[in-house]
Design a protein that fits this description.
The chain is mainly α. 67% of the residues lie in helices and 0% in strands. The chain has 7 helices and no strands.
Length: 219
């Protein structure tokens, strides 16, 4: 159902941060492919999927034409460069884990907000915006898991990954749609909220738990 959503202004993500997030996600995809023992082709393909999959899913679902990543060659070059760097330095990547976690915490909030905003601007409602926001943030990881025949990380008990994005998206939709807060302010609060929850979870060990508890359910 198309709804009339009047956003005050429009949030535009900084290109340098978008490229940095693309680089990070590509590096994660490359690292997982290397651990699986894939060859160079597999590493590059999975790096591209991890870094651009969320945006592609978003654009396809919103019927926005050719995915945004195809309009700017910098994103493909960035992902390809990250894949090659991952091959070269994969044994050293654990040293940079704290920095990668920080960038990741900001990136998921950024991508979630961008997806939610594009959904609202296309005339869809708040719940649809949150769904597309989730896909924009986690779509690359979901596609990566499918290709590697693994369980998606966001479905497993963990350190408030999906929870952080959910709270951030909820903040953005309520501020921008319900309270009519200017889009840049709403987006900034959302991204900071997501990054803060995720970072605190990593530092303090906050974690979600299996619904079934310590024992597996038998069907």
């Amino acid at each position: 159902m198309i709804v009339d959503v009047d956003l005050q202004g429009k949030f535009t993500q900084p290109v340098w941060l978008d490229l940095l997030a693309t680089f990070l996600y590509a590096l994660v995809g490359a690292s997982r492919a290397i651990r699986k023992g894939y060859d160079l082709v597999g590493v590059v393909v999975l790096a591209l999927v991890a870094s651009t999959g969320g945006g592609v899913l978003r654009d396809v679902l919103l019927q926005r034409g050719a995915p945004a990543v195809l309009h700017d060659v910098r994103f493909i070059v960035t992902a390809f460069s990250a894949a090659l760097l991952g091959v070269w330095l994969h044994r050293s990547l654990p040293r940079f884990r704290p920095l990668l976690d920080l960038v990741d915490s900001v990136s998921i909030g950024l991508y979630a907000v961008v997806g939610a905003q594009l959904t609202l601007l296309s005339g869809l409602g708040g719940l649809s915006a949150m769904l597309i926001g989730f896909l924009n943030a986690f779509g690359g990881g979901l596609l990566l898991a499918v290709l590697m025949r693994e369980e998606p990380e966001i479905f497993k008990p963990g350190l408030f990954y999906a929870v952080a994005v959910f709270v951030g998206l909820l903040a953005f939709v309520f501020l921008a749609v319900v309270f009519n807060v200017e889009a840049n302010i709403a987006a900034t609060i959302s991204i900071v909220t997501t990054a803060t929850i995720r970072t605190l979870a990593l530092r303090l060990g906050w974690s979600t738990h299996s619904v079934s508890g310590s024992k597996k359910l038998r069907l």
